[in-house]
Amino acid sequence: MGFGPPGLPRPFIVDGxxxxxxxxxGHILAGSVAAGxxxxxxxxxxxxxxxxxxxxxxSDVNDPLTLKWLWRIATGTLAEAVGxxxxxxxxxxxxxxxxxxxxxxxxxxxxFSPRTEPYERIVAAAHxxxxxxxxxxxxxxxxxxxxxxxxxxxxxxxxxxxxPWLAAEEARLFELAESLG
Length: 181
Known about the structure:
By secondary structure, this protein is mostly helical. Helix content is 60%, strand content 6%.
């Protein structure tokens, strides 16, 4: 057993079928994550022929694989590879993207090159940069709370149960569609 998260590439299983999340380069993946673009992770970074299988399943109306499940697969697989939940990764990468000059300066001072390092190291460096930049312990606690609080939309997707309001809205839309013919 290794020390720390396994990183990328990262194998994963969907319905008994093996897939591998590839490594496009840390800075490329960090850019996608900063935008919250989970679709640029799975299926986009899945090796072939896995990507084609996933996309084929998504286009099959009889297949139970949905975008909601694909979101769970993408964010869960990357969370396992990095050791941090998706929403924490998004917030760290988005902060770095918004404050690039400050982060890059910090990296230069620490001998770290975010253009050549693996994604999980970029995320770790972003965390260290924020910790150092926050200064006082009470400020860091606030930063940590903001990083780790699950966004309301993610909380709905993470849960195993469909929220009642969503189920009711879905039923209403199906009834409307049936009435239109």
